[in-house]
Specification:
Length: about 350
């Protein structure tokens, strides 16, 4: 039979699928370009957000290198570190001011303060991130249960009431005071301090997650999903959790600084670490006796805490603007308007 020149149905279908795949890929690339353009516009409209991103990146990379370089180089038999001087052995005269050799000066024992601040970075940073993550995990699960199954007269309603009443008991006390009391009772160790902070921090996330779940739970698409016969686990994973993730990310980022301040305050009071340990709170406590005639060690160590907390606060505010569609659109419009004004004032064609 002569060839009619037409493709068989399977080939035609394959060609159509290929065309659809190409169109989808082009659309995906265009969507990605639009997202990056929007992100760039937001960063232009709010430079503090960009500063927060940069500072957090620098602090996290520095802390990772301080911890990872000795570990990796030790495996090959030649341990190295990016910390300039020993944090135990004196590296110069006592009470030296800032210089090229010692950017933060030296302390009462002649130890390089910059090296000690650098060595303490992974400790304080990991504690802030890990305690906040633990609190988010525990409080988030309890908040989901207390919000999604909060139906009076059911087992879920009873469990929700119990969770909320226990949460209220913890929230009745200031978290710092309660953490100090727990640490004093259990023995003042480093592990005890971590447990004390973690035990007092999760209730905030219970309230936050429950409120977000209740706000999403009453929306029409959740009602429609229940009417369509979707099970509770599927509604939670497909709709509830996906719609409360953004505020949780923002709150988590902002909360890292709060946990860091609380931990540094407790260690400043002498609970958790022995004096002389390279940890920011303990270092400030040991340097305060020399504050009257040598303020540089205290000032630079406190500055490390301040910059870290500020960086995560700026990052959290920036994430709030980027993740919230309304704020993102407003900042993008502001950046576009500023760009138009700049081109007009410079005489460039529009």
């Amino acid at each position: 039979m002569a060839d009619s020149g037409e493709l068989p149905p399977s080939a035609a279908l394959t060609t159509a699928e290929m065309a659809a795949a190409v169109d989808a890929a082009v659309h995906h690339r265009a969507s990605r370009r639009d997202q990056f353009a929007t992100l760039y516009a937001v960063l232009r409209a709010n430079p503090l957000t960009l500063i927060g991103f940069i500072l957090v990146a620098i602090i996290c990379v520095t802390g990772l290198l301080v911890w990872l370089v000795p570990l990796v180089t030790g495996l090959v038999g030649h341990p190295m570190t990016i910390v300039p001087y020993s944090i135990i052995i004196p590296s110069g005269a006592k009470y030296l001011g800032p210089s090229l050799a010692h950017p933060f000066g030296t302390d009462e024992a002649g130890r390089d303060v910059f090296s000690r601040v650098l060595a303490a970075t992974p400790i304080d940073l990991s504690i802030g991130l890990s305690i906040t993550l633990f609190s988010l995990s525990v409080g988030g699960v309890l908040g989901l249960i207390a919000g999604f199954w909060d139906t009076p007269g059911t087992v879920g309603g009873l469990v929700s009431v119990v969770i909320l009443r226990v949460t209220d008991i913890f929230l009745a006390f200031p978290s710092l005071v309660l953490a100090l009391a727990i640490a004093e009772v259990l023995g003042r160790g480093f592990t005890v301090v971590l447990f004390a902070i973690a035990a007092t921090w999760w209730p905030f996330y219970v309230r936050l997650v429950r409120g977000e779940v209740l706000a999403v739970k009453g929306t029409p698409y959740i009602v429609a999903a229940k009417a369509a016969g979707l099970s509770d686990p599927k509604i939670l994973t497909r709709h509830i959790i996906r719609n409360i993730t953004e505020p949780l990310i923002v709150y988590y980022t902002l909360d890292v600084g709060s946990v860091l301040i609380t931990f540094s305050t407790i260690t400043f009071l002498g609970i958790g670490f022995t004096p002389g340990t390279a940890e920011w709170g303990s270092m400030i406590a040991s340097y305060q006796a020399d504050l009257a005639f040598d303020a540089w060690p205290t000032l630079f160590t406190a500055l490390a805490v301040f910059v870290t907390v500020l960086a995560f606060s700026l990052l959290g505010d920036g994430l709030r603007d980027i993740l919230d569609p309304r704020s993102r659109r407003a900042l993008a419009v502001t950046a576009a308007s500023a760009g138009e004004v700049g081109r007009v004032s410079s005489g460039a064609p529009t």
